[in-house]
Amino acid sequence: MKLREKIAIIAGVFAIFCFLLYSVKSVLTPFICSIVIAYFLNPLVERFHRKYHINRLRATSLILGLFFATLISSGLLIFPVMYSQTVDFINAVPGYMKTFTVEFYPKISVFLNRLGFAFDGNFAHLAQKEELATKVLDFSKAMLGNAISSSSAIIDILSLIFIMPILLFYFLKDWDVMVKKIDEYLPQGGRQQIRKVVIDIDQTMSGYIRGQFNVCLMLGIFYAALLSCTGLNFGFLIGFMTGMLVFIPYVGMLIGVTTAIIVALFQWGFDFGNIGLVSLVFLIGQVLESNFLTPKLVGSRIGLHPLWLIFGLFFFGVLFGFTGVLFAVPLTAISGVIVKHLATEYKKRFV
Predict the structure, then answer these.
(1) Which of 169, 148, 156 is nearest to 27 (CA)?
(2) pLDDT classification of 125: cutoffs 50, 70, 90
(3) CB 197 within 8 A of CB 81
(4) pLDDT digit string (tens) for 201-237?
(5) How far apart are CA 294 and CA 4, in angstroms?
(6) Under DSSP, is residue 101 helix (H, G, I), strand (E, B) or coil?
(7) In a 10 Å sphere around its CB, with 0-12 CB exposed, 13-18 middle and 19+ buried, how is residue 62 labelled?
(8) 300 DSSP 8-state letter
(9) How far apart are CA 282 and CA 222, in angstroms?
(10) Contacts by 197-204 with C-beta closer than 8 Å and gap 24+?
(11) Distance, CA of 147 to CA of 149 (rounded, Å)
(12) 10 Å Cβ neighbour count for 39?
């Protein structure tokens, strides 16, 4: 078989595989999460299995027990505060709307009118206009449609709670068996090259996942503590969620900063002292992350250009939805490694 025919067959099989993945993307969440966590915990299982001569089943049970015990205990400490502040935030939204219509909107309309735009200074009059009512109605319909379609998100959450632990146990227990089986099915001609690609991906990802988790946890505690000290309403909730979302480049920090500033405006008005203090917390956190935490704990393992990273966020977000956004960085890194190897092989053969 000629090289071009082999490449065509491999490309066809890969395209079919990607199409099948896209077709069942709604049920991939527990499998992807289980594989990621199993990949994260597998070195510990291997260590117990090889160093302490504990069989794979017992090592898996021990590591999973410690993992879920840590997860549950941490949840018991953090969840009550998060839940309380989330409920308070939901209850505060009507008051925020009233504050916006009474205090903020008139000032905004005056400013826009000075710029040459015609805005009614009374929000109640604006709300009664027919075109605005139509827009609100259309928006409500769209929100209702999204709420109905979000049943898949509810299924994802339930599957994460009930199905993922079972999947995680089997993935972790049989990890070495699966790797061996996959290796046996690699084509003889390209086995060494494929192994090299997989080793590069493993070296790129293993340190990154562990390091990024530590960065997110430290920043979550940092932001939660300092925003609470500033007196910002829901400071613990906003700070901890910002830290946990830092692994989504640009998006996580943007969401956290925007939410904090909006809450600060509703709480203190245009008090630049308090708003500046909240902004200073995020500035210090960003300096710590970019100059100390990320270089020490993550390093340059990913090595992705910002443009490639932004493209990966959009691409995998469109392809796999929310799950794609969550795993955009590792998926983009894997794609980058594969593209580099393909480019190297292309140069060897055709250039």
Answers:
(1) 156
(2) low
(3) no
(4) 887 777 777 778 888 889 999 999 999 999 998 999 9
(5) 43
(6) helix
(7) middle
(8) T
(9) 10
(10) 197/337, 197/338, 197/341, 200/337, 200/341, 201/333, 201/334, 201/337, 201/338, 203/301, 204/301, 204/302, 204/303, 204/333, 204/334, 204/337
(11) 5
(12) 17
Number of residues that make up the chain? 351
| 189, amino acid identity | G
- Mean pLDDT score of the chain, rounded to an integer? 79
Taking alpha carbons only, the member of 332, 308, 303, 305 closest to residue 320 is 332
How far apart (Å, rounded) are the C-alpha atoms in residues 17 and 14?
A: 5
Q: Are 271 and 333 in contact (CB under 8 A)?
A: no
Which residues fall within 8 angstroms of residue 196, CB to CB, at 6 or more apart?
341
Contact status, residue 38 vs residue 171, Cβ threshold 8 Å = yes
In this structure, which amino acid lies at residue 17?
A: F
Tokens at residue 264, please?
């600060």
How many beta carbons lie within 10 A of that of residue 202, not counting itself?
12
Distance separating alpha carbons of residues 291 and 288, to the nearest angstrom: 6
**E strands present in 137-268:** none
Half-sphere exposure (Cβ direction) of 163: Cα atoms closer than 13 Å: 14
Q: How far apart are CA 267 and CA 273, in angstroms?
A: 13
Nearest to 106 by CA among 80, 124, 83: 124
pLDDT of the residue at 242: 92
244-273 residues labelled b (16+ CB within 10 A) or e (exposed):
bbbbbbebbbeebbebbeebbbbbbeeeee
187 C-beta neighbours (distance < 10 Å), count: 10
Query: Residues 148-193: pLDDT tens digits?
Result: 445 555 666 666 777 888 889 999 999 888 888 888 877 777 778 8
Closest CA to 173 of 58, 32, 50, 36: 58
What is the b/e burial string over 65-81, where b = at least 16 CB atoms within 10 angstroms of the residue's CB?
A: eebeeeeeeeeeeeeee
Give yes or no for a contact between 46 and 62, defined as CB atoms under 8 angstroms apart.
Answer: no
